[in-house]
Design goal:
The complex is a heterodimer.
Chain A: H1 14-19, H2 21-24, H3 30-39, E1 41-45, H4 51-61, E2 65-69, H5 94-105, E3 110-114, H6 123-127, E4 132-135, H7 140-153, E5 157-163, E6 166-172, H8 180-183, H9 196-199, H10 204-222, E7 231-236, E8 241-246, H11 268-271, E9 286-287, H12 289-297, E10 303-306, H13 310-315, E11 321-323, H14 329-332, E12 342-345, H15 350-361, E13 367-370, H16 373-380
Parallel strand pairs in A: 1-2, 1-4, 2-3, 4-5, 9-13, 10-11, 10-12, 12-13
Antiparallel strand pairs in A: 5-6, 6-7, 7-8
Helix pairs in contact in A: 4-5, 4-10
Chain B: E1 2-6, E2 20-24, H1 28-38, H2 43-46, E3 57-61, E4 64-65, E5 81-86
Parallel strand pairs in B: 1-5
Antiparallel strand pairs in B: 1-2, 3-4, 3-5
Amino acid sequence: MATATLNAGSELSHDEILRYSRHLIMPEVGMEGQLKLKRAKVLCIGAGGLGSPLTLYLAAAGVGRLGIVDFDVVDVTNLQRQVIHGTADVGKPKLASAQASVREINPNVEVVGFETRLTSQNALQILQDFDIVVDGTDNFPTRYLVNDACVLLGKPNVYGSIFRFEGQASVFYAREGPCYRCLYPEPPPPGLVPSCAEGGVLGVLPGIVGCIQAMETIKLIIGQGRTLVGRLLVFDALGVKFRELKLQKNPDCPICGPHPTITKLIDYEQFCGIRGEEHTPVGIPEITPREVKKLMDELQPFVLIDVREPHEFQICRIPGSTLIPLGQVPKRMHELDSAHNIVVHCRSGQRSARAVELLIKAGFHKIHNLKGGILAWSDQVDPSVPKY
Amino acid sequence: MAVKIMIPTPLRQYVGKQDQVEVEAKTVAEALSKLASEYSELRRHLYNQEGKLRSFVNVYLGDEDIRFLQKEQTPVNDNDVLSIVPSIAGGAAQ
């Protein structure tokens, strides 16, 4: 911990003056702005795709206290975009990895770590000691939790989100403008919007959006420029288009409106329609990879259908499978004979479960979902099949 | 009225990967209805079982949210641009 923090934001050391010289020589920042940064306490929720650039740039800018909330562990698939973590960090807690990166960039920053899931039980307590909250989370329940906690505590919520090639950013500050619920009163039902693992994401996209979030946070702290309060920035990475949409406070907003019905934190998993860990449709007949291998070895006749996308089929496939992408199953199910034994697979077993459900409704009864998908096939039967 | 509808990236797979679709319509409701008729796979992402626009999908005429105009009855003119802006969160499987 650097001794510079003992000044508690009342002055800058010679080292700090040199470090931040490029800020200090701009009238919009100057000593006054840099001291505001030093006194600022910012909470970054998530040290992942958005949290990586966000935390790095806030650290570089000299935010005095940075809180980081993340309970996850670094996975190799994160490295395509989560640049605060390196190859040597795979398997380590993201929080420890992020803290180390921040210290390396700027030892003057006090990092406060919360290696916990943010919940309705702890959110108010965790958020209350910070001035600004930056939402770098990856799921709807937490986004609504963060929003509600920020509204109840009167704190700005710097919002950013991404999906494949699309990004959004705004600043939700209920005292001055709309909150997240004003924009989106309800989340999509689970399963309708794919995750990064299922839908993919251009690695650099959260880099761009996270940087915008850092930029907005800094502007809020130094009080310069015009922030995204009341505006939704929508970014199309494919076409390189930034569009700006007007956001207004919803007069009927249940939390930040004049007649709020939400006055404390709720059960957000229930609000978002998620029940526990259940992802797959219930009661779908399953078959394990080893059982399928046995069918193959014993030359038992069956049809193996792969419902992944063509570009996934290029990565790897199970020999003998026929590709019918999930979206085409309704139109192409006539290609299948319900008299045959059919096994359906995808990457992890979720999409194929939906396909099996569809086919059962259409009258197919000799049908099974490959439990765990091609990932489990690679683990249990054929390790030469790459995992992705 | 020839209206351009901007399609957000999560929904482009349902409209043959186009980033915008042109339709002839007099109101927002008509424009979206024509879009959903032409691209039937898009329908369940825009409308719920009761045929109402889903609440996690916002529609903008220019840069104005239609909820603060005349909602789906908002009239549209030639060369107006409608944007569909769905809720996104990225990241975790749900």
